[in-house]
Amino acid sequence: MVRIVTDSGAHLPTELFQEYGITVVPLVVNMGGRTYYEGEDLDLETFYQYLRTSPALPTTSQPPVGRFYEVYRQLSEAGDPIVSIHLSSALSGTYATAVAAREMLPEAEIHVVDTRLISVPQGILVLEAARMARAGATVREILGRLEFMKAHTVFYFILDTLEYLAKGGRVSNIQALVGNLLQLKPILKLHEGRIEAHERVRTTQRARARLQELIREYAQGRRDLRIGVMHTRLPEVAEEIARALREELRPTEIFIAEAGPAVATHAGPGGLGLACYGEPASGIS
User: Fold this and answer.
1) What is residue 173's predicted lDDT score, i.e. its pLDDT?
2) What ranges do the domains of the chain cover?
3) Domain 3-27+62-151 has CATH 3.40.50.10170
4) pTM beyond cutoff 0.85
5) What is the pLDDT of residues 36-55, one digit of tens each?
6) What is the pLDDT of residues 139-187, one digit of tens each?
7) SS3 for the chain, per residue?
8) CB atoms within 10 A of CB 127
9) CATH for 153-279, among 3.40.50.20, 2.30.30.30, 3.30.2130.30, 3.30.1180.10?
């Protein structure tokens, strides 16, 4: 059976990682002079306590190549092929590190995928790959499906402030300053693996409503909808939006996931994102 590997930048409910035997390689968070591995020795409460009290913002980095090497070595011992699915190479060195580890095991069959996504849309692809693997799909079938899905998956999100993205180098300080001074709420999106502004609205409530409108617009004419709701410290808001989308769009699947420390370092508290994949009808590109 094909074995599925991802990084902790993919956000899914923990029970789904466990149910489908998905191996998660942790991203690295550096704070307070220490190095932490997301999901292993750093929990969200500790992370947010540091974020509230420390003048220094945490930094993040890709997993060490040795972590990938050990995962690949152990999983390949039985001769199973590996599909390793990772966050956008435009946002992280994780994909490149996974490729480097693959080169250290030339006898193993390891396929590394750059999703050009992060968070819940990455999770949607990982979950599809794991389900296909369990159903007996071949590597070629899984890779083909992932290429198709990532071209048809959308992810829109809003942040309470652009301050954290700016400090982490994901947007310019000028963009962050303008947004904060005007009290605009930029709706951001992933485009070709990078974070871009989609549009701007005046209030948080309007921005949250607009996120849902964008998903409704995307869903028109599509079937078999899979929706992911990402949040940073907004569980009640995420639940309310998931409930509304479930009732209106009747998706095949909808899940809620709180972003881990590595993504939350750049998003900050108060972030909300919606991802959706739907099978396109004829004529939809």
Assistant:
1) 42
2) 3-27+62-151, 153-279
3) yes
4) yes
5) 999 999 999 999 999 999 98
6) 999 999 999 999 999 999 999 988 787 665 555 443 544 445 456 788 9
7) CCEEEEECCECCCHHHHHHCCCEEECCEEEECCEEEEECCCECHHHHHHHHHHCCCCCEEECCCHHHHHHHHHHHHCCCCCEEEEECCCCCCCHHHHHHHHHHCCCCCCEEEEECCCCEHHHHHHHHHHHHHHHCCCCHHHHHHHHHHHHHCEEEEEECCCCHHHHHCCCCCHHHHHHHHHCCCEEEEEEECCEEEEEEEECCHHHHHHHHHHHHHHHHCCCEEEEEEEEECCCHHHHHHHHHHHHHHHCCCEEEEEECCHHHHHHHCCCCEEEEEEEECCCCCC
8) 24
9) 3.30.1180.10
- Do 237 and 256 form a contact (C-beta atoms < 8 A)? no
**pLDDT reported for residue 200:** 87
Task: State both tokens at 149.
Answer: 């899905």
